[in-house]
Amino acid sequence: MAQTSPAVEVSGVSRTFGRRRAVDGVDFSLDAGDCLALFGPNGAGKTTLLRLIAGLLKPTAGAVHVGGRSLRSDATARAQVGLISHQSMLYRALTPRENVEFAARLYGVPDVHGAATRALERMRIADRADAPVRALSRGLQQRVSIARAIVHEPRVVLLDEPYTGLDAAGGAALTDMLHLLRSSGAALVLVTHNVDEGLAVASRAAVMLAGRVVRTDDCATLDARAYQADYRALVLGGSVPADLSVPA
Amino acid sequence: MIDTSGTFIAGYVVATIVYAAYVVSLWRRSRAVARKLERRAK
Amino acid sequence: MSERRPPGLFCAAWLVARKDLAIEYRTRTAFFSALVFAVLALTIFYFTWDESVISPNDRAPGVLWVVLTFSALLGLQRSFGLEEYDRGIDALLVSPIGRESIYLGKALGNLLFLCAIQVIAIPALALFYNLPVGRPLLIVTGIVGLAMIGIVAVGTLFSAMAVNTRLAELLLPMLSLPFFVPVLMNAAQAATKIFAGRPVAEVWPWLKVLIAFDIVFVVACTIAFPFTLEE
Amino acid sequence: MTSVSQSAAAASVAPTTRPVFDWVLGLAIAAVAAVYVRAIYFTPAEALQGLAQKIYYVHVAAAIDAYVAVSITALMSLVALWLRDQRADRLAESSAEVGIVFLSVVLTTGPIWGHKIWGTWWAWWEMRLTLTLFLWFVVAAYLVLRGAIEDDAMRARYSAVLAILGALLIPFIHLSVYMFAARLHPMPVVLKPSQPSLPSEMLTTFVLSVCAFTFFCAALIRARYRYGILRDLAASLDAEGNAA
After folding, report:
1. What ipTM goes with this model?
2. What are phi and psi of D23, to 5 degrees?
3. Which of A102, A184, A189 to mutate to test the interface with C (most CBs of C within 10 A)?
4. CA dihedral for C115, C120, C122, C123, sign (positive or negative)
5. Do D50 and B10 touch (CB under 8 A)?
6. Considering its fold, how many domains does chain C have in total?
7. How many residue pairs from chains A and D have C-beta atoms closer than 8 A?
8. Which residues have C-beta within 8 Å of that of residue A153, sequence separation ≥ 6?
9. Is there a domain that residue B38 lies in?
10. In Å, how far is D99's CA from the nearest CA of chain A?
11. Considering only residues 200 to 229 of chain A, which have any Cβ-Cβ distance to chain C shorter than 8 Å?
């Protein structure tokens, strides 16, 4: 594949529900190995944006390209995306292994059993792989859900509040895995309202308010404490300070 | 000729009731929405 | 990257169907409740007619179609319900498989589910209503198969729609039953003639309508299904 | 009502709202009333059936317009699905609602007539009546489905899918009823409300009644369409009010 095109390119994406503009003209692009942490209060449009990037929603305007291919029209573009959402997207009657293997088959992974084992081991859930999902706790289900989303080794991973419900061990496994994914060349979009979690793995940070990306920063040059304070002021103030760049 | 005036009257009455019921329902609904819009406009 | 090829239309459909059947095999609740319903209905219908007026033999076909229709609705009801629970449907939608595959897979799963019920319900019918076991019963089973394809085709689509509405349980029968009418009318008339010992050639006109219905609605519903998904 | 609608329209960017009840609907009601008068007082009774035959003018006109209205729904559903045009969806909804009113008239006047002439309220072998009944079920399902969905775009898609599948269903029901009727009555030769050759005076009344009811049907669809615009406007103002 041509490495010239970015891993994900979101250009002018908007989405309205009725008369409500949930996402309003968002632009960004990520290269392989980038991780964008997307912060914002409830209702800012983070989840909608993630569902647009995943292709679950059709943008009212704009387009999403993955590896240079249009997501809505090209199945090979969809095959490179992994989604971790609010809901576990698991079938409760099946075991974690069956769920993960089913996902692997949908993506045409050659060694289904081996890929599923690797994914489950990475999320440290392999020892519970043969009990039905129904019997697992919320946190363990979240680990299975993450294993399911990465079993096909996606080039783009979209995560919606992935730390929710995870205990310390699960959170550590997730953080390790996100670093591993980045080093193996995947681009990550991490949606969260917890700034510390986001900054721990991100290479770039963005803030969303009322459907717009109101601020983007490079994490390398970022002071976490100052950013935290700025973010709080942004969210609580509800208005955009004049010195912050606002994309048109 | 058989006497079928009862059938004739029943047919016209029933048809008229169905049509009138719809016109009345439409009128009531549109009046309710118009009032709502009037309140909004204030 | 290149050695990885997403499954094709029918291959993906089979994956979805097999997943649904695996879930059904694990839980078995829907299957047993539909099966018990079917057998219960068979026995209840036996007592709703006066045996001396209409012989069990004559009412068996009618009972068969009523039981088939309502056990089909029970099976269809849960089809998209289990996708909705933890949004399993989202995992299917983000995957590279086509939306048509999702529909065909769900429909195939439902068809096999209903066939499994009929495999028990039809012999139970023959048992309770003292039907002669033989060629006619076999032919009627074939007619049931043809009818089921049409019922499952529209039922699966409406199940996908009903699950997203406020009246989910109520809406599925209301949407589906008018569409079952031509299927049931033709299948029931064909079956009645077969039970009466007529040759297959005589019921061919009804079978033709059934086959046409199956073809038209499998194609139309496959095309229509993507419109029922969130956009 | 006029002033209300106009002031509301001025307050927003929604499509211009016009009064639901205006002279067109009034004229249509007057036309129907005039046809009633002509049919009742100035048209001779038919020799064989007596006065009952006069139901024909209401029944057949309603049947024709019901089928026209339902066809508009199917056609507009196709357009709505193709172009994602809200106006097509609204027109489909309007004509479905008006269509079910006319179908209901067909389904009530038919048995009243049949009870006297055929000696039975309902005749399953009467193809057109049976077909009308099943059509009524499909349109009723269509309207219930619309009422059960909150999201506008989803409602438009779902109901359009149902309407198009319903249009595909009609030929199958027609064929099935025909084959069912053919079994019971090899060639159903019965007294039909339509005589092959009506005397010219009756024919004139019939043509006038079809024209008047078609005008009435169109006026109702138009009024219902305008009501739809007002209702959507009110709903969107509500949504904005809640968001603010």
Report:
1. 0.89
2. -65, -25
3. A102
4. positive
5. no
6. 1
7. 11
8. A115, A184, A186
9. yes
10. 28
11. none
